[in-house]
Amino acid sequence: MPSRKGLLQPGQLSLFEADGAASRTWPAPPAAAPPAPELLQHPRAQREIVLEGQRVAYEYRVARRRSIGFTVGLEGLSVRAPRWVRRGDVDEALRERGGWILAKLAEQRERAARLQAARVQWREGSTIPFLGEPLVMVIDPRVAGAVLDADARSLPAVPHRVLRIGLPHDAGPEQLREAVQAWLQRQARRVFEERCAHFAPRIGVRVRRLALSSAASRWGSASDDGGIWLHWRLIHFTLPVIDYVVAHELAHLREMNHSRAFWQVVRSVVPDFERARRTLDDQPLPALD
Known about the structure:
Blueprint: E1 39-41, E2 47-51, E3 54-62, E4 69-73, E5 76-81, H1 87-96, H2 98-117, E6 127-130, E7 133-139, E8 146-149, E9 161-165, H3 173-203, E10 209-213, E11 220-222, E12 227-231, H4 239-252, H5 260-269, H6 273-282
Parallel strand pairs: 1-3, 3-5, 7-9, 10-12
Antiparallel strand pairs: 2-3, 4-5, 6-7, 8-9, 11-12
C-alpha cells in the first residue's frame, strides 16, 4: 500500500507532515479592485469630471455670458461658459462647487423617483389626486361624462372616493385620459371661481376675466386690466395650496411686483402661505402622459 506521501503529486503539501508545513501562511489572493463610482450622466453630456470621488458627465455649452454658470435639473448637470474660458478653469470651478453640485444632483434624482412613482396609469382602478385626495377611476357606461361618487368612501371596501367615467368597458387609455382631464378642468374652473369670489372682496380687487392656464413654468399670472390665469392642474392640490395661488394672483391686481407691500397683501388673507408655497415646490404633479 503506498504511503500517504506517495499519494501526493509533486508540489502538493501533505496534511500529515510533522514539520509544521501545514500551518504555513500562504499569500492571500489579490484584493478585488473597488467598484468604480457610479456615473451621473446628463443625456447630452460631452464632458466628464470627478467631484469628491463621484463621476459626473455633464452637458457643456458655449454661451454669451461673462462667467461660468451651473444648472442642475432632472436631466443632470449643465454648464454654460463664455467662449474664452479654458477647460481647466471650468474644472476648477466645478470642483469648488462640487459638494453643492452633488447635493443638487441627489435632490433631482429623488425628485425624478417621486415623479415616476406619481405617474398615472390610465386604466380602471388606478387613482388620480383631486383636491389632495386620491380618486379611484371606475368605468361606468351608465353615467354621462364623469360623476364623482362622494358617498363611496363610506363603504368599508372603498377607502377612497370614486370617479365614475361614462365610457365603454373596452375604452383605451387615451379615451380615459381625455375624459378624466376634461372633468378635472371643469372642476378647476368651478373651484377657482369660488375662491376668487371669496378672496377678491377681502383684498379689495375685482376680477374681470378668469381663464385656465397650461403654462409650463407658472402656476398663475395676472394682468393690470383685471385678468387672472390659473393653471388647471392646481386642482390636484389641497384647497389651502389653491388658496395661496389665488391670493397671490389677486394681490398682483393691487401690487404688480413682489415687494414687501405685495407679500403683506397675501399674508392678510393667507397667513401661513409659506407652507403652501413649500408644497408647490416639493410635491410633484402626477405625470398624465
